UniProtKB/TrEMBL annotation:
GO terms (BP aspect): inositol metabolic process; signal transduction
Listed Gene3D superfamilies: 3.40.190.80, Fructose-1,6-Bisphosphatase, subunit A, domain 1 (3.30.540.10)
Annotated source species: Leuconostoc pseudomesenteroides
Name of the molecule in the record: Inositol monophosphatase family protein
Cofactors (names): Mg(2+)
Length: 261
């Protein structure tokens, strides 16, 4: 089903209102005692805020878009096997380690896909209270300021962002990619890393991600003419984990070639 620009703008504005409330709640919760647990290992943290935010967002989506399916991190969503219809992706706290230990470089992310096509994405930089949002039909904005397409710098001309764990062990050619770049950084969260690429601060970013980690960033990046793929240059599977690469066209070509070599 094709949605009009007006329908898409109305959805965008509705989610921005949700995120305004979530930003205030998350900052307030961060200033009080966090209940911190672990999931798969001691570095895979989860807090009461992750769970509370996801429950709030999912309830709002289910009320607003009653037939939609939800793919979300903390287990309160659905388990769709296909991308038909409306599919929402929710990351209630992206970068939980940063949230708990650094109190910066974390985000809240939401995305809407319709029949497997990217429609809208939202990445909320919680600390700075800036929402990066939009999609193919309306463009991309930082709050109300339109973002222009970033330049097409090569890998050698810019900073690349990489997964720290995989860089440490030289996986996926990350060590060679870091050496070939003008500089490299490890942020430790997908949302803040996508923000740096779409705003032109970095020429590329790669990490292993789950769908809720990359769904919103993919919408915004593709709208701005950036390339989003797996590390081999193939389309992403929206319902499973991927080694994701987002980059300028020239940096994307450079990185894929280095990975394959």
């Amino acid at each position: 089903m094709t949605m009009s620009q007006l329908e898409i703008q109305n959805i965008d504005q509705t989610v921005l209102l949700w995120l305004d409330d979530l930003q205030k709640d998350t900052i307030s919760a961060m200033r009080h005692h966090l209940q911190v647990g672990t999931k798969h290992d001691e570095r895979d943290l989860v807090t009461n805020v992750d769970k509370a935010n996801e429950q709030k967002i999912n309830a709002l989506i289910r009320s607003f878009d009653v037939n939609a399916k939800i793919v979300s991190e903390e287990g309160f969503g659905d388990k769709p096997t296909a991308m038909n219809g409306h599919v929402w992706f929710v990351d209630p706290i992206d970068g939980t380690m940063n949230f708990v230990k650094e109190h910066t470089d974390f985000a809240i992310m939401i995305a809407l896909y319709v029949d497997n096509q990217p429609v809208l994405g939202w990445i909320l930089d919680v600390v700075d209270n800036v929402v990066y949002h939009g999609g193919p039909k309306i463009g991309v904005f930082a709050n109300q300021l339109r973002i222009q397409q970033p330049g097409d710098d090569s890998l050698a001309e810019g900073v690349v962002l990489l997964s720290g764990a995989r860089l440490l062990y030289g996986m996926f050619g990350y060590d060679q990619i870091a050496k070939a770049a003008l500089g490299y950084r490890v942020i430790g969260a997908a949302g803040p890393s996508f923000i740096r690429v779409i705003t032109g601060q970095a020429v590329g970013y790669s990490s292993k991600m789950m769908p809720w980690d990359f769904a919103a960033g993919q919408v915004l990046a593709k709208t701005l003419g950036l390339i989003v793929s797996d590390i081999d240059g193939q389309a992403l599977d929206m319902l499973s984990s991927n080694i994701v690469l987002v980059a300028t066209k020239r940096a994307h070509r450079d990185i894929v070639e280095l990975h394959k070599s």
